[in-house]
Design goal:
Four copies of one chain form a homotetramer. Chain A is of the alpha/beta class. In chain A, 45% of the residues lie in helices and 15% in strands. A six-stranded parallel sheet of chain A has the order 6-2-1-7-8-9, with helices on both faces. Chain A has a three-stranded antiparallel sheet with strand order 3-5-4. Chains in contact: A-B, A-C, A-D, B-C, B-D, C-D. Chains A and D meet through helix 5, strand 4, helix 9, helix 10 and helix 11 of A and helix 5, strand 4, helix 9, helix 10 and helix 11 of D.
């Protein structure tokens, strides 16, 4: 009998329908199908491997995920430490704050008449509506808080931790900001100026001169310092944007100062952009290797899918992980209450890069 | 207290992660989120409504779904009559036949070296591999079968029913073609010439002159006649292509001959194309109303997603439907063994449009 | 001085704006930029090389290009023999016929109210409108013509040549069908049943029993025979769909019967689909090599762009080609008026594959 | 004769191929075709109308446009004041600086082996390569410059103007940064931390403590103040990202402080993202109306295309505009050399919003 080609090793196994399958069973059956279904299953497997390995997991989120109903998934991932550090757009934190303050986004339609919405002061995000008036209330609330802080520069990481704390004290409600506050998970927001949080901060300055300063270059230093201390990293990216690059940049920057850094060991991204136009959001994880953002032997997968489909499935499947796995992770311990954060009880500067390395594991 | 805008009725309800959720529970929690997650949940709801109403359900499939591991889902949908009539590209039926004949597609990589694959005679479909030699074997098998038939024109519907029967007798294995044969569900393949089944048919003609004639215009007549007889219809489209238009065309064509026909009452599509380029695959269901393909009051939803993610989830959720619902459907009963098929015991011509209508329900 | 990496050879040359640039000058300046701009410039270069080499050029067109205002470009490409054989969807030929018959498509809006359009019997294609009544007139005109033909099977190639002839005699107007008729360029339409031409053919059968038979399997044989006779081929694909695969299939099929066939020597495609979902429309030209559809050393490029942007630019630039280049092409000479076509004065069967080869050049 | 539907007013006019057409003639012929071709032609028309009206034109650029060969187009648009204010990602300014410093990006391939590239320290952006070593040189150059500045916070606008000046003095070469410096066109970079310019700034801090502070909240205030002073605005967006939102945010923020502000009067965007996933990059200009970002009666168009195709064509066509039209624009006059910029000879704060308005024109 003729020998099979070396390319023909593992047969596709058609997905078998069955009632009662749970998310992890569904993803497990998708491991042997093709295309983005398989990619999603691979993403699940890689995330599990991240959790079983000794890596610091960065997650980036862009797109209207909070307005779109995924904020409690992210909060869940933070609380249970499926991730160690969040990098987000301002909008996702703002829409999280909106709901944590007891307000809502609403089911709407992409076919709505926007002139009518404008008249009613309803803001539309594709198929989702919200009240502009409530948004103005949020801006003001953020401005008041920022104006109440000692007038000095704050990294977005410090500011957001404080904002989360204030939000928790005020509302006692779960959400991304409050969960991160309670779990001592840092949040970076490199483009915070480009969001309603930025608008709130600009209004703080109107209320109390000298307030509303965000030191985003401090965030650059601090995020790289995390990688210098913890050179084994992993990246989970939802939607591209500034968070995707910022997470990669931390690694590239860290590598200048430490030979132990060698790019993420694991990387998964769920994106809707494609690589053909050269933009960073759609760029492949293969390309990322050329920059040293990823180790060339990293486990990696891109999933071409809307996060509102992929993340509910992924998170539901990850919920099946043995709690011991999560408990046994050698995850970094942060304190975040002041300008100088600590990681594993060591202070971490936002003003200069750390030269000393921990031995790479 | 101020009155809310009429646009703010139903709040988004953030997806709550929980271990042990089944597919239908996951989709149910996605009903109140946004974007394509919500669209997928709506697709699930609309499909359920189709099954509870008295409609004839057409399903179209394009894209490499069979090679990609979804063929047993389609077979399951046929066997349990979640659908009443399938319109497919030739490739999907060919790759189904390939596996039903005991062969496989294989896990591959989109980054493979195609020159090496060509040398090894391995054909690649994105991340999936198959043996060219086995494909040639299939072509020959199809050619032999087609050459054995009485030399006259066959609608694709009749030919595929016979092919499914021969495949069942030969292999006794489940698949799309064999399930459709056993469940007496008609399969139309309007672009059958553009596929390896078409190549097989062309080779039949080489073997036995006068064989290998497919009467696709007969398929046009016959599919419209189904709608004339059963004017309440629904459409499930996976991936656009010729099947999407053919299902709609049947309705438009039928309307010339019967006032009872008024466009599909329900329509859902899972597509990756977008409308902005004017192509039929990405065209919206709203646009379809202008053509009379859909009733203007139809329930409808487009899901922008890869079918390899959407269909496993949808089908797993639909598996939770009470078997009584499926049993109580007033589904059409077909016989398909000859040139003149029957529907509900009445013959249905492929040579002229039926003028007589059943009363619309 | 340090040696540059071997990867750094040809610098990007930023596009320099200047008034008065013609299309070919613009594309020439785009050769040294990046992303899809460069791809489009490469497509232009490859098409020029096709014309200078001795290859038979197949062009495939899918998407609503005729309705969308590109039909006279295609007619121009046919008349001046930038291409030698057209493979089209039925819709593109139908919408061409619509305008050649003196009717129009109209500027519309993607934001139109489709229920209102339906009431007015206006059909919408994204941002373009047309009259349903005029479409019904076309269907009837096609039906009358088809019913007037001797009742026997016609390949789509023969039928479309005759249809083009009838249209030319009736209208004397240029268009795709009439230009192809006059230039003796064959048109194949493998999915003709899936279009309003197919609907017209089905209505012919209603008028005169026994008419309206299209032998698409004959098209499979005939198109492969063209490649067997002319093994050096090139492929220009606009929009994917059945034409893309049919052109490739002709090559694969021909290879069974002739060792001279080795896949297209040149290939360019302008598509909006992407490969990640496994569909044929978006599949890469690299993948096509694994199937033998393309020679592994072929010149090839994919342009990710809407044809309504890319084709006007490409065709305007190609218009600058020296007429001698076009005149000196060793292009195939067809006669198309009967069931058996000829190529270079030799008859070409649609009933069996040709075994004899011309020597490969 | 029967009356035409009111929906059928202006016929599609098929594009007529002709040698020697210039960019504006090509776009003019695309006005009466469909889909994205028409959208691009409309974008051209709207940009012309912006230039003829009395509006302040903001342009946003995201994606790898500078690396990809479009930087001299942007420089041209700045120099000739087709735009009045640029909002950019950091990467586009960084890759501009890279070339202005006499270095290059290089033609590469999307199929390159990234592990090999990594070994050679070549960074890949889709089909474009660059030397990592040269990038490190740039970072250091930026760091040295930033470290040489008086240690205080700088808005990105002030910093980038100074950087442009330094670059001009050092190199005397044209580019985006140097042209903007020379033409006194402000550049905002709200996400400057998320780029290699941000990395350079972080390294400045390493060299001279207290340097490398960017006051992005000051940018929020300042950009809104421009709109307060000049409430009639227009928006040209290439590629979405933070620039798209930042330009819109300026308008929304300004509206809090001035009733004269009512959203952009003109808006065009060239994007590759689509709206269906809810992300800001792909969001429609219709949706933008609901937020008050655009006037509900604004002229607007979205072009779904890669900027590397659309921008060369648009800019070449705009080069045909009568120089008098550009000369007669009542364009804002800026001075940008210090923390407090001026517009039309009036100082403009970055520390508090201006309440006084100019009368709306």
């Amino acid at each position: 009998m003729k020998k099979k080609s070396r390319f023909l090793q593992t047969p596709i196994e058609p997905f078998a329908v069955e009632a009662g399958l749970t998310a992890d069973e569904i993803l497990s059956r998708m491991e042997r199908i093709s295309f983005q279904g398989r990619s999603l299953a691979t993403a699940h497997r890689i995330w599990r491997r991240m959790l079983e390995d000794d890596v610091t997991i960065f997650m980036g989120m862009a797109g209207a995920l909070s307005a779109g109903g995924l904020r409690m998934i992210v909060a869940h991932l933070i609380t249970h430490r499926y991730i160690d550090c969040l990098v987000s757009t301002g909008a996702n934190l703002y829409h999280d704050l909106h709901e944590t303050r007891g307000q809502h986004h609403y089911l709407g339609s992409p076919h709505a008449d926007d002139a009518l919405l404008a008249k009613d002061r309803i803001d539309r995000v594709y198929d989702t509506f919200a009240s502009e008036e409530e948004f103005i209330g949020n801006d003001n609330w953020i401005a008041d808080f920022a104006a109440s802080l000692e007038p000095r520069p704050y990294t977005s990481r410090e500011f957001l931790h404080r904002l989360g704390g204030h939000l928790w004290e005020t509302t006692g409600r779960d959400g991304i900001l409050t969960s991160a506050y309670r779990a001592n998970v840092p949040i970076f927001c490199p483009a915070i100026a480009d969001s309603s949080i930025g608008m709130g901060l600009s209004q703080a300055r109107q209320k109390v001169p000298g307030t509303g300063y965000i030191d985003i270059i401090g965030d650059v230093v601090e995020s790289a310092n995390i990688v210098i201390r913890r050179p084994r990293t992993a990246s989970v990216v939802l939607g591209g944007g500034t968070p995707k690059n910022f997470i990669n940049q931390a690694t590239v920057q860290a590598e200048f100062f430490s030979d132990d850094v060698g790019g993420h060991r694991y990387a998964l991204q769920v994106v809707t952009d494609v690589p053909q136009y050269g933009g960073a959001s759609g760029s492949t994880l293969e390309e990322a290797q050329s920059w040293g953002k990823l180790a060339t032997d990293s486990a990696r997968v891109s999933v071409q899918a809307d996060a509102t489909i992929a993340l509910p499935l992924l998170a539901s499947a990850l919920a099946h992980i043995d709690p011991d796995v999560l408990a046994q992770r050698r995850r970094p311990v942060f304190t975040l209450t002041s300008r100088v954060m600590t990681i594993d009880d060591q202070p971490l500067s936002c003003d200069r890069f750390e030269a000393q390395n921990e031995p790479a594991v």
